[in-house]
């Protein structure tokens, strides 16, 4: 039976982790809106400007699993707190940046802080909530992510317009300080279920370089440099596997996790889900503005439909996965996503806007059904000593899936449109690219349904 102290601690952990879960996606989505203003101030070319966004994503992906494992050994609260401190300080430094390279460097450091937060926040929630309440708590956490993604573009746009892009970074500082204060004031307990084990430094280096090469390669396809980077990533993946299967204290216990059917297929389903859905907003934003002629504000109002639906249903879906096995709830969500993507394969320049909004509602509802229960399945399927690694692995699937989704779009655009700027004069080629991309995403998500079902029952 839970004591009053346990209940209070759960509430505090949930509040702290949820605020942090809002902070990181809000920053990422808000900064994306400010990129044109940043490019103007620092006279950045397209490659340098892309690094402002991708350096953060790269750092996050590289350090997620290593910091998750480090937190399992030395304390999740400690790494979480340090992550929030790094994230907050780097936001301040980014706001004070005087050049493009300086801003890119601070964004990379900010990504390291983000990795420390992502790799521990979910693990802390899982540590304090019993299995019968875990899904609902994780649903609240996921809802905060969706709210951050929803609010980011709008608030970021207004901040950039009236207070310059630097204000976006400054707005994160009070919330970061508040989270640190709450941790230091209310959380005395530490969670380190793998205490005493050694941290795998070589494995962490192999892992980070592997992810760096793979993500760089994916983001630069089909250029030769992207292909070379992917080959380097495969080489380091081989080195990582060889080392991890021989060292006594691996950063990622590959044989153990590979034999864990629920964990393996839940992560695969997450990777497929993000690979098939992340670029949807990007594609529809271009469609609405280039093909339909809407201004950015109107396009944003249409696209906000999906994250709003996700935010509304994420917590109830997580609660449902406490009573119904996550295998079925998450798989049903993937089916809805597949249907929504399939409808977009029939998109035309005359498609009624209510039809597009209805499809976005379908996608948002499916994503809400999938996300929280799938997260619940991953965290429930591993031992307490692996909570940090599991949390980091899930976030890595999310980040890698995002990059893969954009890479698919990049390759299809390169093949069907070329290097021509997307505008009314290439509308036919753009629409053809749109149909091919949504077809690929639909096929991917169909495989995702089977991957989700293949995990089996998470709870016996």
Describe this structure in words.
The chain is mainly α and 460 residues long. The protein folds into three domains: 196 residues, Up-down Bundle (Growth Hormone, Chain: A); 51 residues; 206 residues, MFS general substrate transporter like domains (Growth Hormone, Chain: A, Up-down Bundle). It is 82% helix and 0% strand. α11 packs antiparallel against α17. The two termini are 22 Å apart. The model has no long low-confidence stretch (mean pLDDT 83).
Summarize the helices and strands and which ones pair or pack.
Blueprint: H1 4-42, H2 46-74, H3 76-95, H4 100-128, H5 131-163, H6 166-186, H7 201-219, H8 224-244, H9 254-258, H10 261-277, H11 280-291, H12 296-303, H13 305-323, H14 326-344, H15 353-380, H16 387-416, H17 427-454
Helix pairs in contact: 1-2, 1-4, 1-5, 1-6, 2-3, 2-4, 2-7, 2-16, 3-4, 3-6, 4-16, 5-13, 5-15, 7-8, 7-16, 10-15, 10-16, 10-17, 11-12, 11-17, 13-15, 14-15, 14-17, 16-17
Domain count? 3
Distinct helical segment count: 17
Biggest sheet features: none
Q: Low-confidence stretches at least 5 residues in length (pLDDT < 50)? A: none
What's the rounded overall pLDDT mean?
A: 83
Keyword list:
460 residues, mainly alpha, Growth Hormone, Chain: A, 3 domains, 17 helices, 82% helix, 0% strand, globular
């Amino acid at each position: 039976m839970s004591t009053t102290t346990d209940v209070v601690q759960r509430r505090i952990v949930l509040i702290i982790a949820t605020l942090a879960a809002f902070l990181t996606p809000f920053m990422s989505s808000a900064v994306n809106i400010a990129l044109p203003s940043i490019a103007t101030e620092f006279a950045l070319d397209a490659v340098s400007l892309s690094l402002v966004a991708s350096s953060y994503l790269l750092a996050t992906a590289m350090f997620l699993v290593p910091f998750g494992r480090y937190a399992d050994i030395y304390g999740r609260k400690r790494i979480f707190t340090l992550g929030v401190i790094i994230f907050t300080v780097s936001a301040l430094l980014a706001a004070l940046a005087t050049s493009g390279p300086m801003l890119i460097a601070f964004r990379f450091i900010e990504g390291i802080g983000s990795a420390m937060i992502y790799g521990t926040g979910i693990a802390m929630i899982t540590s304090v909530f019993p299995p019968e309440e875990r899904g609902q708590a994780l649903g609240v956490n996921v809802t905060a992510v969706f709210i951050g993604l929803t609010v980011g573009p709008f608030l970021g746009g207004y901040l950039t317009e009236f207070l310059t892009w630097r204000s976006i970074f400054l707005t994160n500082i009070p919330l970061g300080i508040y989270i640190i204060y709450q941790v230091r004031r209310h959380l005395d307990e530490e969670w380190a279920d793998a205490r005493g084990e050694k941290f795998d430094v070589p494995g962490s280096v192999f892992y980070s370089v592997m992810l760096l090469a793979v993500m760089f390669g994916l983001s630069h396809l089909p250029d030769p440099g992207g292909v070379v980077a992917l080959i380097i990533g495969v080489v380091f993946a081989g080195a990582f596997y060889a080392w991890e299967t021989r060292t006594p204290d691996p950063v990622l216990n590959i044989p153990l996790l590979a034999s864990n059917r629920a964990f393996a297929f839940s992560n695969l389903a997450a990777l497929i889900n993000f690979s098939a859905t992340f670029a949807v907003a990007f594609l529809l934003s271009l469609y609405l503005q280039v093909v339909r002629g809407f201004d950015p504000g109107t396009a944003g109002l249409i696209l906000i439909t999906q994250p709003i639906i996700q935010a509304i249903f994420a917590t109830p879906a997580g609660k449902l996965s406490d009573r119904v096995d996550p295998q079925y709830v998450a798989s049903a969500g993937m089916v809805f996503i597949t249907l929504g993507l399939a409808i977009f394969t029939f998109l035309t320049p005359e498609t009624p806007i209510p039809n597009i909004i209805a499809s976005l509602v379908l996608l948002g509802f499916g994503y809400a059904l999938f996300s929280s229960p799938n997260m619940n399945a991953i965290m429930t399927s591993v031992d307490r000593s692996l909570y940090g690694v599991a949390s980091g692995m899930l976030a890595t699937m999310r980040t890698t899936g995002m990059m893969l989704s954009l890479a698919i779009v990049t390759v299809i655009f390169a093949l069907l449109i070329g290097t021509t700027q997307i505008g009314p004069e290439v509308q036919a080629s753009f629409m053809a690219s749109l149909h091919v991309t949504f077809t690929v995403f639909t096929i991917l998500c169909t495989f995702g349904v089977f991957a989700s079902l293949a995990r089996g029952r998470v709870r016996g």
